[in-house]
Structures are given as C-alpha cells and as structure tokens.
Design a protein that fits this description.
5-stranded mixed β-sheet; Nucleotidyltransferase, domain 5; 6-stranded mixed β-sheet; 342 residues; flat
C-alpha cells in the first residue's frame, strides 16, 4: 500500500507521502470560478501550489479554490473553526485537494495516517474513522483532463501531538529511553495547542492524565491583531490582509503605512504565557522529572523562545511544522513492516 501522512490543521494543511513529496498550504477553501483574466498583466501564477483550482465530483460537480488561491481570490473566506470539523464541508474539500497532490498515479491502494487534536481524538475518533472510510470523490486540477479517485484502503488516526512525538524520538530512540523519566511534547497549532506525555518504563508508556488540548494557538494572535487594527482605524481586516499584517507587522492603509510590530510581539508573549501557565498546571511537579520537552507545530517557531524557560532541556523538533505529518508517515511505515514480517 502507498503510504501518506497528512496533518489537517486548522491553519495549514501539511502532508508527505512515501515518495518524499510534501504539500503545505493554508486551510482555506471556497467556491471556484473561471479565471479568464488571471494571465493578464503578468499576473498568471503557474505553479501548482499557487493555483489549487479543482473540479470535484461527489454528490455534485463543483469547483473549488484551495490554499493560497482561495486566500487571493476567494472573497469573504474564513478558517473553519468548528470544534468538531470532521463533517465540515471545508474539511472534505481540503482532504480531497491534499490527497490529489499526494496520491500516486494509477490505481494503487493508499494507507492514510492522519490525526485529530487530542481532546477531539478522545471523543470523535470513531466518527472521523467512519468519515474517512466512506470518503470517495473524484477530483481533477482545473488545468488537466485526468482525474484521481480519492478513497482509502486503510486509515489510521492518531492524536496530533503523538505523530510529532514519534517523529521526534525515533531518530535517536536510545537517547530518550531513560527509565523513570518523562518525555513531553507541546504541539502549537493554529487553533489548539496539544501536549502529550510518556513515562519511560523500558518503552514509552502513554500518560493520558498528563496529556490534553489547550484551546489557544496562533489564531489568538490574529484575533488580537484584528482587534488592534479595528481600534486604530475603525475598519475590519479580511483574512488575506490579517494574515499579511500578522506575518509582517506592517500594512499600508489609507495611504499610510501602519506599524503594529510591538503590539504583535506583545500578543505573542501573552499567548506564550497563557500556554506556559496551563502546562504548569497540567504537568505540576511531574515536570521536574522530564528528561526532554519537545516543541513542534507551526506555532513553535513563533513561541519557542518564550516557552524554552519551562524546562531546562527544551528541544525544537526538526521541521516542526511538518512534525505530525512526518510522524504519521513513520506510523504507516512501521505498520507496513509489521505486516511484512507477519
């Protein structure tokens, strides 16, 4: 079976397949339409990443813009923030688009490993598994004739932080197998921050009581930026401008450049303190017995320095935004090895 690891994040979709192909795009999807003028004025973006325009056939035939294309041309778009996003129409569109980019050519069965935020995993794993088991759509890129049928021969669902944890430790497993110690990982995402803990007892033993979801993430910074901008200008930011201002600290408005760099940094520090305080409560005195605290997720690059003081041995995993997706792929690879050896 062809193996895919896919992280359907609230803010970004991250995926990797067994051939090494990686995909990354904002978790934005909207109705598509013909863009007859898109090539004028030298503005035709030719890369697949910039032109995620798909024709999808399931119950109906419809066109969708995904990722940066939805951000550029989607009008009144927003991130899907439903707590239970499993049956949200946007989730189906994002899953279909990411699968199109990661699926192999030809009719090869696919093993998909994906995840949910920890608390959603506890309560909605079976529902998600049923949705994936029934998923069956045909999708093609707008500029191509050939389509792909997206369904999954096998699916495995993990807590999101667990995927990143496996990715973090498997490269040097012996280093972390210190009996009587704990390993923790903090996965800072767009809407949620997951934390997961293992006790080392010959092998890593999952500690559910020391794991959970904090409903704060990088979107908290965007929300604060939006409020600041409105307070200063009386106007609201759409999603593209909000993303731009949060990333760059400055934006041109009403003929003048406005600088929010200090306010954005303050919002980041406030978010980091909130996460740190909640982790201290969740882990309590057990934190003293941690061998390593790993940081993963796209938000870790933004907040890593502020969180590093939580534990003296804090380690940023490599390529943190892809840590879950790559961990999920490792899970699929391990399953294939077990099946091969009987």
């Amino acid at each position: 079976m062809f193996k895919i690891g896919l992280d359907l994040g609230y803010g970004y979709i991250k995926g990797v397949n067994e051939s090494g192909r990686e995909v990354l795009f904002p978790s934005l999807v909207c109705d598509g339409y013909d863009r007859q003028l898109s090539g004028l004025f030298g503005g035709g973006l030719q890369s697949m990443k910039d032109n995620l325009h798909f024709v999808v056939s399931d119950e109906t035939n419809h066109e969708i813009f995904v990722g940066d294309l939805a951000r550029r041309e989607g009008g009144n778009i927003s991130f899907a923030f439903d707590e239970n996003k499993i049956n949200h129409p946007d989730t189906r569109g994002l899953l279909a688009a990411a699968s199109y980019l990661l699926f192999p050519d030809g009719h090869i069965p696919v093993h998909l490993v994906t995840g949910l935020p920890f608390e959603q995993y506890v309560h909605h794993k079976n529902e998600f598994s049923q949705m994936l088991g029934k998923f069956n759509v045909t999708i093609r890129h707008k500029n191509t004739i050939e389509s792909k049928r997206i369904n999954f021969a096998k699916t495995t669902i993990f807590p999101q932080a667990a995927g990143a944890f496996y990715y973090a430790i498997l490269a040097d497993l012996e280093k972390y197998m210190i009996p009587g110690s704990y390993l923790g990982l903090v996965d800072i995402g767009f809407k949620t921050t997951d934390f997961i803990t293992f006790y080392i007892e010959g092998v890593p033993v999952f500690r559910k009581d020391l794991s959970g979801t904090i409903y704060s993430g990088i979107s908290d910074v965007q929300f604060a930026v939006d409020k600041m901008f409105t307070a200063k200008t009386g106007s609201k930011l759409n999603i593209p401008n909000l993303m731009f201002l949060t990333d760059n600290g400055r934006i041109l408005f009403d003929g003048k450049e406005l600088n929010f760099s200090k306010e954005i940094e303050d919002a980041k520090q406030k978010l980091a303190k909130n996460i740190k305080d909640k982790l201290k409560i969740a882990w309590g005195t057990d934190l003293k017995f941690f061998h390593t605290m790993f940081l993963a997720g796209g938000g870790s690059t933004m907040l890593g320095h502020a969180l590093s003081g939580l534990h003296p041995n804090t380690t940023m995993v490599g390529n943190p935004q892809f840590a879950n997706a790559k961990g999920f792929l490792k899970v699929a690879e391990q399953a294939a090895r077990r099946a091969a050896t009987g």
